[in-house]
């Protein structure tokens, strides 16, 4: 659909919401704090794991070339494969946390924002 034929504001446009008030609401602030308390440490851990692997590959080739459990499987291969495992584990952990904590908080924050927007317009639900 071209830009000229779209409805103003798009499908998710809610002119009845005071977005600045919604952003300042305790519910929204709690959601942001909860997400940050998960995302920032998770990102730091993942990047440390990843760059630790890169540094070891560059500066400790003897260690990375050491065989691990069986012929042909080296520490380097195990650590490289652990990058994939780490991505899946962090992704699954985030989805679980999102379903249990972030989504209910987001729904509550959206509900409060809608209620406050209606109240400021003088409308009732």
Task: Describe the protein.
By secondary structure, the chain is mainly α. Helices cover 73% and strands 6% of the residues. The chain has four helices and two strands. The protein has helices at 19-24, 26-59, 61-64, 75-121, and strands spanning 67-68, 70-74. The protein has a two-stranded antiparallel sheet with strand order 1-2. A hairpin with a 1-residue loop joins strand 1 and strand 2 (70-74). The longest helix has 47 residues, at 75-121. It starts with 18 loop residues before the first helix and ends with a helix.
Briefly, what is this?
With 125 residues, the chain is mainly α. The chain has 4 helices and 2 strands, in the order H-H-H-E-E-H.
């Amino acid at each position: 659909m071209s830009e000229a034929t779209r409805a103003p504001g798009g499908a998710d446009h809610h002119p009845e919401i005071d977005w600045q008030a919604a952003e300042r609401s305790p519910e929204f602030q709690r959601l942001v704090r909860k997400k940050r308390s998960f995302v920032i440490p998770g990102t730091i851990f993942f990047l440390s794991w990843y760059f630790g692997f890169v540094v070891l590959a560059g500066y400790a080739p003897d260690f990375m070339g050491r065989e691990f459990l069986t012929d042909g499987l080296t520490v380097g291969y195990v650590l490289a494969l652990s990058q994939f495992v780490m991505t899946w584990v962090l992704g699954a952990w985030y989805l679980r946390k999102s379903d249990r904590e972030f989504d209910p908080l987001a729904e509550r924050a959206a509900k409060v924002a809608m209620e406050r927007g209606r109240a400021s317009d003088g409308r009732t639900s």
